[in-house]
Amino acid sequence: MRALPSTLAALALAVAAVVAPPGAGAGSCAKAPNPTAPSATAPIATAPNGTVPIGTAPLTGSTLRATGAVPPLDRTSRTLEKWAARDPHDLARVEFAEVAALLEESFTVRRSSRDDVDLALLSLAGHCRRHRSLPAIDALHRITHGALEQRLNGRGGTGFAALIKQKVLDPDGDADARQRLAACDALAGHLVDSNVSALLEVAASDTSAEVRTAALSGLVGLARLEVTHALVDASDHREGDERTDARLLLAQHLDRLEREEELERAWSPDLRARLVTAALPMLVHPDWRVASRAARLARFCDFDAVAPRCIEALFTWERREGAQEDDPAGLVGMRRLRHELADVLKGGSRMNLGIDPRRWTQWWRAHLSGEQPRFSSRTVTPDFFGLQLRSGAVAFVIDASGSMDHPIPGKYAGSKGPTRFEEAVEQLENALVRLPEPAVVRVVLFSDGGTVWSDEARLVSDTSRSSIRKWLRRNPPKGGTNLSSGLEALLPRDRAGAVQPELIDVDTVVVLCDGETSEDARWARTWLETHNRSANLVFHCVQIGGSRAEALSELAERTGGQFVRVD
Could you tell me where the DSSP H helices lie in 446-497? Predict the structure, then answer.
């Protein structure tokens, strides 16, 4: 095997360091993904509805030439196209270093082959994007996307952006959905005016729901009124899963604009009125994930329109949670959603009355009659390093690497106080005592790999608390810090090994890490985009010592959770 070229070596090593098959053993954070692992070779479904099925001939450079001649593709194009046509489980067997080497070569092809190579690269990147729920394919997706970014930056010659906008994303063109998906992802990293216009056009008129959603995703957080209009349009007028995705993207968009104090630049009264129609009926939707996304949007609606609907929804979800007390799976989402509804009411009323709808009903009646409501606010008690765990289905993902065997910096450094791991264990045990029942819990330790206390969420009880306590003491800290392995251990999979994030049995994840992990903000964004649209998890993250861990803060901020540092 030839040596990996230097230009892509850093990216390849970074990908290999954070992407490993579930259950990888010691050293997994330092190796490239194992292409022969069972989960990486499992067959999965091909093209989603509304896209061109895999195997359909994509647009190639030769079809763009007016001469009508069809010269043979060079070796680089042929190989990229061959990989793009493979089933995912076959593609996962390709050597990671071989792909990286060919991508390096792709920047040096002759000018006459440039379009062929670029289009083949788009095909492979789009194919990997679709199937990145498999760890080996996720690694290939990262490195092919990195190659697209380098092409947009001018490496290998100019004209790539023009090819994308004039040919690949042309509504009358012949590019397949995989190429258009990858093109949207590439433009999203370079949001100059012309690229924004191209993505807005794709979001409005592309024939594929998958591609339309990818275009919208690339615009999230951009403080422009036309972007918010496009997201509201999709939330209001699209159907099925596409509308659900659009509402999630809209909630993320508004959250980010609010956090960055740019909401006024991309918001208007007419959008507020339209949001009432789009979001409020969904507060009592049978699927708690749909209702949760509606609650996030309700914060941006007129409060007088929102308040009675949120109170009504609180009664509905209280009844639903009460009906699930003996069913652990049924507790997922229920209590968290009730807190999210109460947050909307708290934000508009400046009152903290908890999740009891009767108290809110009394307050609302007093508010309508013009009386000065008199209610005592509920006291919030910290549950885990100052975090309030407002859920009945929680997973704790705890760093058990060797560095966790050191004292907490600034608190016990140089003394005989507890180690980071011992402090985390004590906080976890106290949290389980304070967690209101009925509730379900999972616990995962991660170091070189992920280790689970139980393969499924179990009801919190004296028995389960005792079992967790004994299990934690049998697993002292050691090894590296592979956060990705801890999160992978939470994800349910079918018999073929494909991830099924919609079946995850918790709604809230608490991550504790000392910050000495190789995962970065991009890894967190990719993980959330791949899995959390279906799972709808909220991440609360605690970092003990070290410089700011961008992966932890990204997980928390993008899901509406909290990021806490313990120094």
Answer: 462-473, 483-488
Kindly report, residue by residue over 134-145, the tens digit of the pLDDT.
Answer: 878 888 998 999
121, 78 contact by CB (below 8 A): no
Spatial neighbors of 268 by CB under 8 A, at least 6 apart, are 225
Q: What is the pLDDT of residues 28-58, one digit of tens each?
A: 333 333 333 333 323 323 333 333 333 334 5
CB 214 within 8 A of CB 185: yes
Question: What DSSP character marks residue 516?
Answer: -
Task: Dig out the tokens for 437 from the structure.
Answer: 């029942």
Which residues touch 539 (CB under 8 Å, ≥6 apart)?
508, 509, 510, 511, 555, 556, 559, 561
Q: Residue 318 contacts by C-beta under 8 Å, 6 or more apart in sequence?
A: 338, 355, 357
How does pLDDT run across 480-504, given as a tens digit for each residue?
A: 888 999 999 999 988 877 788 889 9
Domains and CATH numbers, the chain: 6-188 (no CATH), 287-368 (no CATH), 393-566 (3.40.50.410)
Omega of the bond leading into 438 within 30 degrees of 0 (cis)? yes
Q: Residue 2: which pLDDT band, with cuts at 50, 70 and 90?
A: very low
Q: Which residues lie below 8 Å from residue 181, measured CB to CB, with a gap of 6+?
A: 126, 129, 130, 210, 211, 214
Query: What's the pLDDT tens digit per position in 346-387?
Result: 999 989 999 999 999 999 999 898 887 677 666 566 689 988
Looking only at the bridges linking them, the beta strands covering 450-452 and 393-399 are unpaired
Residues sharing a CB contact under 8 Å with residue 510, sequence separation 6 or more, in sequence order: 384, 387, 389, 394, 395, 396, 397, 539, 540, 541, 542
Backbone angles phi, psi at 443, to 5 degrees: -135, 130
Q: Are 392 and 436 in contact (CB under 8 A)?
A: yes
Distance of CA 8 to the CA centre of its chain: 25
Measured CA to CA, the distance from residue 444 to residue 515 in angstroms comes to 17
- Model's pTM, two decimal places? 0.75
234 contact partners, CB below 8 Å, separation of at least 6: 203, 212, 213, 216, 242, 243, 246, 249, 250
Q: Tell me how many degrees the CA angle 359-363-366 measures, rounded to the nearest 5.
A: 145
Proportion of the chain in helix, strand, coil states, percent, rounded to 5 = 55, 10, 40
Range list of H helices, 218-329: 225-237, 240-259, 269-279, 288-298, 303-322
Q: Kindly report the backbone phi and psi dihedral angles of residue 544, in degrees, each rounded to the nearest multiple of 5, phi listed first.
A: -100, 105
Q: Cβ–Cβ contacts within 10 Å for residue 9, how many?
A: 14
